[in-house]
Amino acid sequence: MIELVNVTKTYENVTAVDNVNLTIPKGEIFGIIGYSGAGKSTLLRCINLLEKPTEGQVLINHTDLTALSKLEVRKERLKIGMIFQHFHLISSAKVYDNIAFSMLAAGKTKDEIKERVPELLEMVGLSDRADHFPAQLSGGQKQRVGIARALANDPTVLLCDEATSALDPNTTASILKLLKEINERLGITIVLITHEMEVVQQICHRVAVMEDGKVIEVNEAYELFADP
Ligand code: ADP
Ligand code: ADP
């Protein structure tokens, strides 16, 4: 479960996130939509403390991340996977190593890695690509690697930062299908931000609408898209 309590993030004279309160139960696919500059990305990055809130608390499974030391935050962050619009893969490393590196960083052994990486690749449908470099993959395949890497350390939460915005509609649909399968099979809570209504419409259970740093509405996805 994710709880944001009075979360505010200010930069110099910009209030990027303005007193946001949200509770996202375990297993939910929660969408955050809004125009560019609304504060979506900053809010998402507050959930794993890539941005430290100026005020307020962030609780993941009842642990208040804002009360922890930097070292402890780094440990907690391993339980929170993240995927990005532009994938953020290491271009000089093979698919296998892109995933292995994040497991090494979490202190996993070579044996654990050897067993886990093929499982992850199978889950995302890339069993035959372990030895490819990112440049040899399509955008959709790169995002599948991003998803495998994000799941490598068995997170309870997956954060998706405009994860399909760089992909064409068919590829977007297949990535969303994969995220839905992961949510259903593993019970992972997914929080995604997007400026594309179709994305939330396709997979989100509930949706928050952001404007000027504030959450102005939270609703069931079907309510949000119902005809008035
Ligand atoms: P693009 O660059 O793709 O045009 P926009 O920021 O214009 O992105 O938003 C895309 C769509 O998302 C809009 O057509 C609108 O339907 C929806 N949207 C974005 N922000 C909001 C909001 N704050 N409230 C409701 N719908 C929104
Ligand atoms: P969104 O993801 O909805 O496009 P952002 O969270 O990226 O919105 O940005 C929200 C506001 O915060 C914007 O006005 C943006 O310019 C500002 N902002 C974001 N990151 C920084 C930063 N590192 N320094 C200063 N201002 C920032």
Automatic annotation (TrEMBL):
It comes from the Bacteria. The keyword Ubl conjugation does not apply. GO terms for molecular function: ATP binding; ATP hydrolysis activity. Keywords: Amino-acid transport, ATP-binding, Cell membrane, Hydrolase, Membrane, Nucleotide-binding, Translocase, Transport. Residues 2-228 form the ABC transporter domain. One of its GO terms (biological process) is amino acid transport. Its EC number is 3.6.3.-. One of its GO terms (cellular component) is plasma membrane. The keyword Zinc does not apply. Belongs to the ABC transporter superfamily. This is Methionine import ATP-binding protein MetN. It comes from Sporosarcina pasteurii. The gene is metN_3.
